[in-house]
Amino acid sequence: MRAAMAAHRRSTRFGVASAIVLVAAGLLSAFSSLLVGVPAYPTAASGAAVVSAVVTVWVVGRVAYAAFSGGSTPRLELFRPLPIPRRTLARGLLVTGLFDPALVVMAIAFGALVALGAHGGVGPALVGALGAILTVLLSSVLVSVVEALMPPASQQRRAMGTIVVAVVISLVAVVGTLLPSVAAALIAGTVPALGLILGILPTGWAADAVRATTTGDLLGAVLPLAGSVLLLAALTLVWPAVLSRRLDGDLAATSRRRATRRRLLPGTPVGGVVSKELRMWARDPLRLTFLVIAAIIGLGVCIVPELSQGTGFLLPFAGILSVVIAGAGGCNLYGSDGLALRLTLMVPGAARADIRGRQGAFLLLVGPYALIATIVLTTLSAQGWAWPWVLALLPAIVGGATGLLPIASLVAVLPLDANGGPAPAWPVKVYAAMVLTLLTAAPTAAVLIAGAITGSTATQWAAVPVGVASGLLAAGLLGRAATIRLRRRGVAIVEQLSAA
């Protein structure tokens, strides 16, 4: 079954190319992770903490990917009509899960446990190998359980599941990006709470066993491995029940009464689009995922250096970074909406209201959050020099992102794939949108840099009105350009979406 699915993915030229890129990137990351266990650490505890962090990133990332993408097996509902006992089917799916190519890559990465134990001799190395095997098996079973627990149908339930997955993906991205800083903090022992958490998590039990074996603590080596075996057995026993609940769940749709809501937005075409877009941002899993990721990564990238190295240099810019990421996540709104664009084109004069409404909804979503985060974190960071920088760059970036949102969505429109997910070229568009959003603040940044070079505080504060004007111009002019493009190219875009 897995071989047939893999062959289907390789049936296109893009499928072969993407498979080669994924395998190469996976192997490179795996061997890089393996090398984490090679250096000689000051203490056995610090080495175990660093390796535990690497193993945790791999396991959580793999489980989050399975939950977000639906895994690499067919939908579980397809097995419902088969005359196979649930326990037999559960055992078969667990065995099938062991043939996941990702587990091979993870096994290479978990070689860091063997390398870490090799510093203490053959015994700790063997314990590391056993811990790596148990962690790989635990990851495989956990992936199957998480896939079955994720809601299959309901849009609202899917959105709620997406929030959880987005949080996990964001945390993995933050930890993975800042892993060198985290490792340095773990080695120096400046964040003892983080080391304690990594040791408590099941992903750190194998490294704890290696550490205990190295120091001659036999009981401390046996207990983590025994805990891994018991957890693996518990998940294996629970798995048939989880699968049965997924396959035999209640499929009947439930109706809910909607409470009458007081209108807060004006009853105008623009107000109607703003209201619709606010609901779409909250209900569309793809948009919601990017909002959550933007908030967590924006905060995480700027807060972790403060926690790990005691430097608050990046704290004031957390809100700005979140806006850049959120704006890039909305760079393909019309492609995500699909043929609903026809409704807009059928109403004379609706193009301008649609563009301005989308801009207004995005501004309401990110503007207050970014402003509050910027003021609070700049105050807490005690970085007095940062006030003119953040107060100038924030309106410029918010205005740039608000302006680029509709025009980027109308350029190189990418329809969703057959599963309702983003197109393969979507990440390229996201990265391009992030770069363009940053470039919209170039005039403001130039004034700030000039003030910093000349040492003129007045010049730096003069960048604040420049940033406000830059943001207003970007939002207004780019929105107007998007309106013109929608009027001229709307029918062609619908034809492109229809042919997808």
UniProtKB/TrEMBL annotation:
This is ABC transporter permease. Signal peptide: none annotated. It comes from the Bacteria. Keywords: Membrane, Transmembrane, Transmembrane helix. The chain crosses the membrane at residues 46-68, 89-113, 125-150, 162-188, 218-239, 288-307, 313-335, 361-380, 386-416, 428-453, 459-479. The lineage of its organism: Bacteria, Bacillati, Actinomycetota, Actinomycetes, Micrococcales. The keyword DNA repair does not apply.
